[in-house]
């Protein structure tokens, strides 16, 4: 009973905060709303005993929203980030696509005869996850690791300005004194 | 709290995120839409895990989804930085030539 009430409160907060992301009149408020939505979902994960994943979702998204705040200050300045904005295109078609998607997904959720639960969760879910990623699912983690490393390299290559080794552009001999 | 109700909430989050990803002009706001969609995916995956098959496999799948969100965030910020540096703009409408 209590779990049900908490779930519905968190669900309403998650969806309302999600809507507020695109209804807020500034990017700063939109960032806070997105963080609230993620924290609500993280707490729902805790309700279904996913302690580790719930906690890392909350921590990661709080950090990410902080990074987003820094981006807004960098790109838009502090004041413009707090000023009202409405920068959208194709509002009506986007709304139609979103409503259509929700109707299809909701129909699937309600009409599909879902199977009954098979098996029971382990006594210690965090330990079972740790054992899975170190034993039977190690290939997944070995794939994820280089993907994350490649992401770091690619993001740095894209984001960094050209350094001192590239000050002459594509013509590497341009700076050489004539003999 | 049932599988259906959790999936309904996940569908709502996904749809709201989809609206944002399609309609927003600022790159960071588009990223927010994509993250909201992944938020819905995380919730749906947790619901499937809890109500259908509560094995460690489902938890590993959730970890992969969270990793995808991390990659999306890092690359999105990098592209936004590059766009801002090269064109002094963070609007998607100023980068339509990238789709050619």
Automatic annotation (TrEMBL), chain B:
Compartments annotated for it: namely:
Cell membrane; Membrane
Principal location class: membrane
What GO biological process term is on the record, naming one? ATP synthesis coupled electron transport
Q: Which reactions appear under catalytic activity for this entry?
A: a quinone + NADH + 5 H(+)(in) = a quinol + NAD(+) + 4 H(+)(out)
Q: Which UniProt keywords apply?
A: Cell membrane, Membrane, NAD, Quinone, Translocase, Transmembrane, Transmembrane helix, Transport, Ubiquinone
Pfam families per UniProt: Oxidored_q2
Which spans are transmembrane here? 33-53, 60-83
Quick check: keyword rRNA-binding in the entry?
Answer: no
Q: How does it sit in the membrane?
A: Multi-pass membrane protein
Q: How does it assemble?
A: NDH-1 is composed of 14 different subunits. Subunits NuoA, H, J, K, L, M, N constitute the membrane sector of the complex.
Report what the protein is called: NADH-quinone oxidoreductase subunit K
Q: What is the source species?
A: Modestobacter caceresii
């Amino acid at each position: 009973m209590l779990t049900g009430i908490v779930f519905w409160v968190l669900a309403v907060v998650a969806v309302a905060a999600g809507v507020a992301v695109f209804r807020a009149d500034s990017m700063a408020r939109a960032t806070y709303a997105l963080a609230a939505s993620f924290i609500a979902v993280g707490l729902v994960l805790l309700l279904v005993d996913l302690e580790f994943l719930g906690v890392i979702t909350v921590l990661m998204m709080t950090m990410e929203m902080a990074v987003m705040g820094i981006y807004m200050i960098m790109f838009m300045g502090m004041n413009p980030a707090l000023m009202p904005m409405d920068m959208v295109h194709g509002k009506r078609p986007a709304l139609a696509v979103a409503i259509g998607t929700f109707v299809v997904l909701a129909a699937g959720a309600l009409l599909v005869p879902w199977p009954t639960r098979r098996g029971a969760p382990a006594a210690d879910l965090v330990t079972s996850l740790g054992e899975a990623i170190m034993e039977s699912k190690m290939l997944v983690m070995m794939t994820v690791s280089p993907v994350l490393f490649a992401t770091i390299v690619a993001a740095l290559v894209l984001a960094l300005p050209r350094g001192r080794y590239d000050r002459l552009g594509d013509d590497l001999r341009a700076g050489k004194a004539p003999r | 709290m049932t599988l259906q109700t959790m999936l309904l909430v996940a569908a709502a989050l996904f749809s709201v995120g989809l609206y944002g990803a399609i309609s927003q002009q600022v790159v960071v706001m588009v990223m927010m839409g994509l993250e909201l969609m992944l938020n819905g995916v995380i919730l749906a995956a947790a619901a499937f895990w809890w109500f259908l098959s509560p094995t460690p496999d489902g938890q590993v799948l959730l970890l992969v989804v969270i990793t995808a969100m991390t990659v999306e965030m890092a690359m999105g910020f990098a592209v936004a930085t590059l766009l801002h540096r090269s064109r002094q703009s963070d609007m998607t409408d100023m980068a339509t030539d990238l789709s050619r």
